[in-house]
Amino acid sequence: MSRFQAIALDMDGTLLTRDHKISSATRAALAQARAHGIKVLLVTGRHFMTARPFHHELALDTPLICSNGAYLYDPAQGRILAGDPLAVAPLTALLAEVQAQQMGALFHLDGGIGYLGCEEHVGRMRRWSANQPDHLKVSLLPAEDIDSWLQKPIWKLELFNQDPGLLHRFVGEVVQRLPFTQDWAAPYAVELVQLGCSKGNRLAQWAAREGIAMEKVVAFGDNNNDISMFEQVGLAVAMGNAAPQIQAHADRVTADHNEDGIALALQRWVLPA
């Protein structure tokens, strides 16, 4: 019998291969873990609409932790169970600057993903969504009336600029003083959630509700936003493709996400012999 009761999985760079698939070996290992009574949970920076197809593929019965821990979403009920949206007053001030300085932005909304600019990124999502069944498609919403979006929860804001220097300067001059948590997804992209929101904190909230001690949770990840999970779980596993500074926060390092790193780690350190 395994000493672990739950497995928390980052998606991009971890669960998914470079072509955004789940390998057959990973699927089999996760099914084996579930057969031993271990819960499997997706913990992602993605909006629930872009995470949901993979939850469906794995036939999971757990909720999704999305938008870097901003909320917990139940696909079975089609609703957010708990969450903390971005504070409206500082967000309103930030968006005025975003528009004035022509930054690209993605908005994680209840009803879909809003966008301001970001045409290339949105185009990729649109093409990917077109291949999904109707009930798993993504709603992509152009920023025609941002004021109306501010009347409802905005869970996460992603800021983009093709010039990383401009974006870093914008963050330093405008974003830094606001009460938001920052995660750099790439040199040209920064993600903002409400202060106190993180993958690790939302995972701990879910585990407490399930009666699972965090020392009995395994977490897999590859990026900055996974460190908050690594700091709280019983076994933190970094992917082989993670940068050295991410691997330094983990208890173990497994193979690359394109080389069945999750499956190998589960067989080696988690599943009963």
From TrEMBL:
Record-annotated membrane-spanning stretches: none
MF GO annotations: magnesium ion binding; phosphatase activity
Cellular component terms (Gene Ontology): cytosol
Keywords from the named record: Hydrolase
Keyword Hydrolase: yes
Gene3D superfamilies named among the record's database cross-references: 3.30.1240.10, HAD superfamily/HAD-like
Hydrolase among keywords: yes
CDD domains hit by this protein: HAD_Pase
InterPro entries noted in UniProt: Cof (IPR000150), HAD-like_sf (IPR036412), HAD-SF_hydro_IIB (IPR006379), HAD_sf (IPR023214)
PROSITE patterns, per database record: COF_1
Superkingdom, natural source: Bacteria
Protein name: Cof-type HAD-IIB family hydrolase
